[in-house]
Amino acid sequence: MYDVREARDRDGDPVEDRSERIDELMRSDRVGYGDGDPLAADSYSNYPDHPTELSAPKWRDWVEVLLSHPAVGSYDDAVAEATPASDQVSVRQWREGIQNAANAAGLDAGELSTLATTANGTPLRTL
């Protein structure tokens, strides 16, 4: 079973033969609003409430942190992290808000300019 003394001796390190599946489950940097720890701020309460807010200069750093996070590989990832909304209209608004904020701030997010899709893979629009 679980040996508390052994765990203390490891000082927080994992057991040598721990399954990779456990490591994957314990990762906190997963993309998705509310999935794991927030990627672009210390709390989801510090995320913007609406995509129109992203044009304000105060959100520039947030957008930069979001788009530069290693777990965010596309605008779709950025949208999934920014909002729990999943309907087509909201997803499109958030995507456009993030793209516009990145462009206005002069951020190089070229590799993120991929085909936007809904959760079921339906294209929203091409860039």
Structure described in brief:
The protein has 127 residues and is mostly helical.
Structure notes:
This protein is mainly alpha-helical. It has one domain (31-125). 38% of the residues lie in helices and 4% in strands. The chain contains five helices and two strands, in the order αααααββ. The protein has helices spanning 4-10, 20-26, 60-68, 75-82, 88-104, and strands at 116-117, 123-125. Strands 1-2 form a two-stranded antiparallel sheet. A hairpin with a 5-residue loop joins strand 1 and strand 2. Helix 4 packs across helix 5 (88-104). The radius of gyration is 18 Å and the shape is elongated. The chain starts with a helix and ends with a strand.
Tell me the structural class.
mainly alpha
Main beta sheet: strand number and arrangement?
A: 2 strands, antiparallel
Helix content: 25-40%
The number of distinct helices, counting runs of at least 4 residues, comes to 5
User: Strand share of the residues?
Assistant: under 5%
What average pLDDT do the residues reach? Answer: 81
Biggest sheet, spatial arrangement of strands: 1-2
Helix-strand pattern:
HHHHHEE
Compute the separation of the termini in Å: 54 Å
Radius of gyration: 18 Å
What does the overall shape look like? elongated
Q: Which ranges are low-confidence, i.e. pLDDT below 50, for 5 or more consecutive residues?
A: 113-127
- Secondary structure tally: strands: 2
The count of domains is 1
